[in-house]
Amino acid sequence: NLRVAAPILVGAVTLIVGVFAACGGSESAAGSGAESGGVSTETPAALLAEGDDASGISVSGRGVAVAAPDIASLSLGVSTIRDSARQARDDAASLVTELIASLKDNGIAEEDYHTSRFSIDPEIDYRPNGEQIIRGYRVTSILAVKVRDLDRVGEVIDDAVDAVGDPIRVQGITFSIEEIGALQSEARAQAMADARAKAEELAELAGVDLGKPIAISESSGGGPPVFFQGFAAAEADISTPISPGQLEITVAVQVTYAIS
User: Fold this and answer.
1) C-beta atoms surrounding 31 within 10 Å
2) So where are the chain's domains?
3) How far is CA 83 from CA 77, 97, 131, in A?
4) Which residues form the signal peptide (predicted)?
5) What is the pLDDT of residue 24?
């Protein structure tokens, strides 16, 4: 029995010593980190290079080009209510014919207007007892009109009012730029320059060298259009003032630059 127990005892002592040695090594490693204050001594460049997701510097850039609009888009039309749907339709058709003649007199080309909405709806009175009485039929016919001479927009509206009278409806005006390619190019150049400036500043702060762009994405669009809405109600001797204002064409880019 003594011959068997001795090796077992020695083995147990050896195992305990091994465990303490491992713990001591761990404490020593932890102590060395504490002595350095727990702060990595690696440079920002090394940290950026080692990160799996840090493949470069990603920045956004924005450019804006401003210009006066050259197109006015109007919604002009008529709305009539009569006892019968047929009579309402006939009267609306006659009024739209007068409206189109007014547009042509103001130099609006045939390809610059078209019907954008047409509807025939019953006009219903709802009584307290739940009864529904049809008191007539309303026909609404709206034209989408492009005016290329912005100095004449007010005159076009005024002449439409004179031609149609009270049934006239002016449901909205928006201003736009027909050819925006050159403005988009201008805004795009500004956006890339903006992104480059940001990337250079970040690279300098991080202590790295900025490389070439490795990924670029873009989104673009116009600013909110100048908008006018309302029913025409003007005296004969007062012209309708219309102010086109200015429009913004914006381009936004997202650029990722390589670093070294």
Assistant:
1) 9
2) 2-39, 46-67+181-225+245-259, 71-176
3) 20, 21, 19
4) none
5) 44
Residue 134 pLDDT class (50, 70, 90 cuts): very high
Long-range contact set of residues 125-133: C-beta below 8 Å, sequence gap at least 24? none
Q: Tell me the β-bridge partners of 138.
A: 81, 121
Q: Are 170 and 157 in contact (CB under 8 A)?
A: yes
The two structure tokens encoding residue 32: 């060395």
CB 111 within 8 A of CB 177: no
pLDDT at 130 over 70: yes
Amino acid 198: pLDDT: 97
For the chain, the distance separating the N- and C-terminal CA atoms, rounded to the nearest angstrom, is 70
| DSSP assignment of 74-123 | EEEEEEEEESSHHHHHHHHHHHHHHHHHHHHHTT--GGGEEEEEEEEEEE
Distance CA 127, CA 138 (A): 20
Q: What is the CATH number of domain 71-176?
A: 3.30.70.2970
Q: Sign of torsion, CA 246 193 178 77?
A: negative
Cα–Cα distance, 257 to 216 (Å, whole number): 9
